[in-house]
Specification:
Elements: H1 2-15, H2 23-28, E1 42-44, E2 50-54, E3 57-61, E4 65-74, E5 77-84, E6 92-98, H3 104-117, E7 122-128, E8 132-136, E9 139-150, E10 153-164, E11 167-176, H4 180-193, E12 195-196
Antiparallel strand pairs: 1-2, 2-3, 3-12, 4-5, 5-6, 6-11, 7-9, 8-9, 9-10, 10-11
Amino acid sequence: MVKNFFVCVCLLCFANGAFALNKQDFLMFSAQDSIQGSSAHLTKDKNGIVYYMRDGVSFTVSPEWTIIYDKQIAKDAYYFSMETKSKTSTGLVTVAWLDYYMDLTMTLNTHKKHIVENKSNRSGDVLFSEERESTFNGHKSMECHYKVISKDGQVYGKIVVFNIGIKTITLFYETQQDDKDVNDLLLRDFVLSFGARED
């Protein structure tokens, strides 16, 4: 499934040395760690909205999303992922961050490289847009968009990287064409809720 392809790519980005994780850290983070319910840094209100705050990073998760990963995967690295709830929906958002500063162009190029190298669950080429400077909730960022042909059809993706204080944060977003309009709105609401403490 498309979602599994994307999660795999994100994990490869962390596991292949770009973020200084060792093999043991990577192996400890597996599909068995999917989250159900809440933990100390998650609270849910009566409307089903989840409020997330961890390591100075905060955002809200609307009821249309299911949290699938929420792990500290190394001393200074965190990984959060959610997907849209419908079985036919293809929305996926992943936020990964490090508690140290990394160059945005290098970080973006590392993610692009691993997306290209990962051949699971797709055929054909990955087509990237040009990298461009952007703004993520008031923070200077860099981003690129891409298309990939998967077994389930054409997938649209976006990678956004930015620094807040010493943190280096990456946002990944993927959707198939059929769900793009709905998922784009859900992503917009998530982005507007996003904040991070400048340590």
